[in-house]
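For reproducibility, we list the full input for the acetamide complex.
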Amino acid sequence: MRSHHRTTPRTARVLGTLLLVAAAGSVTVGATPAAAPPAPTPLGRVVPAPASVTPGAAPYRITRSTVIRADGSGAGRRVAEYLAHLLRPSTGYRLPVTSRGPAGIRLVLSHDPFGAEGYRLHSGRDGVTITAAAPAGLFHGVQTLRQLLPAAVEKDTVRPGPWLVAGGTITDRPRYAYRGAMLDVSRHFFTVAQVKRYIDQLALYKINELHLHLSDDQGWRIAVDSWPRLAAYGGSTQVGGGKGGFYTKAQYREIVRYAASRYLEVVPEIDMPGHTNAALASYAGLNCDGAAPPLYTGTEVGFSSLCVGKRVTYDFADDVIRELAALTPGRYLHIGGDEAHSTSHEDYVTFMDRVQPIVAKYGKTVIGWHQLTGARPARGALAQYWGLDDTGAAEKAQVVRAAQHGTGLILSPADRMYLDMKYTEDTELGQDWAGLVEVRRSYDWDPGAYLPGAPASSVRGVEAPLWTETVATDADIDYMAFPRLPGAAELGWSPAATHSWDAYKVRLAAQAPRWDALGITYYRSPQVPWPAP
Ligand code: ACM
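The corresponding predicted structure, in tokenized form, follows.
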């Protein structure tokens, strides 16, 4: 099978086309950055940039007689129904989904080597065909199709159209298998509906992993039957002292189901042994001194630790991991491991030696923040790097050494990928401990070259975490995630050969009308040549 890291002559040619198309729409931004450039053609503005793009002559026009066809009745059919649901409100058309006969939009599962998530989209006068080897590829192709239509297609009321799908052929597959976003539902609690809204935003950009930070000092957010006070008491507040909340198991399953319907895998995190005040407050017996601390609603870190020497700590870990693993169809269970400043190094290593096998016992693969590499990462474990460009050489070397010994890496450098960092010093929300992270800074780096010495195969992908000490509403999420989230998605999906800030910023600008149509409020960075509002 062709490797997407290697560039064949054919790909080189079509990549050249893409870059030309993008360049034709770009302008040189000098001292006066305000002038909006001419809009790139729809094929040239897709985010994340596809692996190859060949513009065609004639567009396909969706009309009131358009039919959507998917073979069979399984997952491919459900992707077709999802597409119909997307298109019906704004077009006002019936768009029936069928399994046979002529159709303007066809979703085809084939044995062609598109990989687990790749697809080919062909659009011309006679129709649109999306072909993939697996339903996930059809789903990602549908996200591309959305972006080939006018932004008004995202509206929830009938619009006039015309509904032209730009003509051409896109052949596409991801650079990395792990393309994640994290939502911290502990510092502020977010409802199932709010999480679903974020899932839909992630899906538009082909992100396929939703990491939920389910526990921290300020709140425990998932029901655990064997330790009911974790959620009932430990989930009863949040940063600032609001009422907090938690997911019942039924609600959590609904998040997992909804994410799966958008081809996202949920990665649940229980952060241990630090960041555990909510648990320690809920059960006095978990504390070394047998005394429960009060609930905590501030934003300090590093003051709490599970009691590594107590047997009950591992009963607790076993019960929590067992119940969470049973709720989790996904492969991973994240055990945190960051900022354990109140745990000695020796205790930290002991704790990780005892808890990682519990994760394996319940059939899951460990993910930990990269401090896990200072202990003994289990075979197959993934470490999530959240250091900075200028993190010390010794710490980076420890991560690189682990990668050389088989630990996989998820890259979330905090001064690039943290969506909670302020854009500028004037940004009202967010934090600045990792620095100010404007849009260009968040996009303009290469995951493949970020940690020299780490084997290329160790880099499994990237993730954009959104910590929520200062983030409490949908609008807050939108403002911090947009426009940086699409850049994170592009770093995970697009071939390195497409990477170009000058081309990207033009494609990014062209997303703004879509966000307006979707009701997403975003930061109008002066680095991006936005169209007039
Ligand atoms: C982290 O930001 N403490 C992982």
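The first strand starts at residue 52 and ends at 55. Confidence is low (pLDDT under 50) at residues 1-34. Both points were considered when choosing residues for closer inspection.
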